[in-house]
Each structure stands twice: as structure tokens, then as C-alpha cells.
Amino acid sequence: MTTIFRLDSSIRTEGSVSRAVADTLENAIIEAEGNDTRVTRRDLAADPVPTDAWATAAFAGHTPEDERTPEQQAAAALATQLADEVGAADVLIIGAPLYNFGVSQHLKTWFDLLITDPRFAGGAQTVKDKPAFLVIARGGGYGEGTPRAGWDHATGWLRRILEDVWGLDLDVIETELTLAEVTPQMAELRDLARAQLAESHEVARTSGRSVTLKLRNAA
Ligand SMILES: Cc1cc2nc3c(=O)[nH]c(=O)nc-3n(C[C@H](O)[C@H](O)[C@H](O)COP(=O)(O)O)c2cc1C
């Protein structure tokens, strides 16, 4: 059986590009892997990780277990639960919109709390070489030579953690210009935006099918 860990962080449930592309990817993996594929979901918009859990868990890590406060015990238990979810997965799908030129506070809080678990601290090998997908959606355009090149402070940070710290076998599926449809000043970019979105779904389909090969090679 294959287990997919699916995380969403778009604050939209309707019209979310990251959720839609992640759905295409997830469905392609299930189609390739078979119906007994299990999906563990964490939706950070519907069910955010409490913002104070990270600091509490971080201090719990420096406190002997039998001296922890009830709050520290609860925060450490939540960190363990997040780590169990990710650690048990064969494939990771992480949806991450660009918000205010960075990641959402929900997503940052999830990472920070997870990293308090020793299995995900720097240098840990828990998920090393597992296939993972980062599904990014950005309202604007950030390509080389555009006025806002270098303003996307989400993708680089996510790559550092997922690829360099955790050692995942990471593919990034990026869709830009998602605001073109609803922003009059971006009207001339709509054809380009539609083409990019179609391309992202196609890449998601192809990548989903190729996961089977990666999992067979890893077995
Ligand atoms: C609160 C908020 C902040 C945003 N900030 C940015 C931003 O800094 N840069 C950008 O290109 N798009 C920004 N956007 C647009 C989103 O990146 C875009 O709508 C993206 O498609 C959201 O992902 P989703 O479609 O999965 O919901 C922002 C959207 C919201 C709601």
C-alpha cells in the first residue's frame, strides 16, 4: 500500500489553484498506484496549528518529560502527531500559495512545530529520498527580468527545508499569474496565465504517474 501525505495551506477552498493542481497530482498517483492508496490529509486553513504550540514545544524539548506542564505535554504531543503523519508517508504533496511575498503563517507554524520533533530537526534522515511535490501558486509573476524577480521569499525557503534539510526527492510545480483572471491591470496576461495553469496540470499528471517508478526503485 502507498500512503500519500497531502497538506494544503491555501486559505481558499473555492477556486484555489494550489489545491486544484495538487488534486490532479494526487489523482494521478492514486490511478497509478491503485485503489488501496491511502491519503493522510492536513488542511491548515480548515484546521490551523495553534500559533503558540511551537514555542511551547520548543521549551518542552529542554524540559525533562516528567517536569513538563500540561501545555508543554500537549504541544509536544501535537508535534509528535505531525511527525508521525509525515514520517509514515511514502509520498508528500505540499500546497503552498505565495502570501505577502512569503509563506502563510499557517504553513510556517506547521513547519516550525514539526521541526521540534527530533525526527525532523536539522540533519534528521526520516524522510530522506522520499518523493515529494511542492505545489506553488503565485498571483503575480516573478521570473528573471520581471520587476518583482527575487520577491518570492516562499519558494527558496521551502526548498531549503524540504530538499536541503530533510533531503526529500523534491519536484516543484509552480503556477504564476493566478490573479490575472480577476485583475483588470493583468488582462493582457490572461492567455499566458491559462497556458501556465494547463501546463501545471499536465506536469502534475505526468509527475503523478512517474511516482510509481520512483517508489519501485526505492523499494
Ligand atoms: C492575503 C493574500 C496575500 C497575497 N499575497 C500575494 C503576494 O505577495 N504575491 C503574489 O504574487 N500573490 C499574492 N496573493 C495571491 C495568491 O498568491 C494567489 O491568489 C494564489 O493563487 C493563491 O493560491 P490558491 O489559488 O491556491 O488559493 C495573495 C493572496 C492573498 C489572499
UniProtKB/TrEMBL annotation:
Keywords: Flavoprotein, FMN, NAD, Oxidoreductase. SUPFAM superfamilies: Flavoproteins (SSF52218). FMN binds at S10, S16, V17, S18. Residues 3-164 form the Flavodoxin-like fold domain. Binds 1 FMN per subunit. The keyword ATP-binding does not apply. Its cofactor is FMN. It catalyses: 2 a quinone + NADH + H(+) = 2 a 1,4-benzosemiquinone + NAD(+); N,N-dimethyl-1,4-phenylenediamine + anthranilate + 2 NAD(+) = 2-(4-dimethylaminophenyl)diazenylbenzoate + 2 NADH + 2 H(+). InterPro entries: Flavodoxin_fold, Flavoprotein-like_sf, FMN-dep_NADH:Q_OxRdtase_AzoR1, NADH:quinone_OxRdtase_FMN_depd. It holds the Pfam family Flavodoxin_2. It comes from the Bacteria. Its EC number is 1.6.5.-, 1.7.1.17. The keyword Ligase does not apply. PANTHER family: FMN-DEPENDENT NADH-AZOREDUCTASE 1, FMN-DEPENDENT NADH:QUINONE OXIDOREDUCTASE. Homodimer. Quinone reductase that provides resistance to thiol-specific stress caused by electrophilic quinones. Belongs to the azoreductase type 1 family. This is FMN dependent NADH:quinone oxidoreductase. It comes from Aeromicrobium wangtongii. The lineage of its organism: Bacteria, Bacillati, Actinomycetota, Actinomycetes, Propionibacteriales.
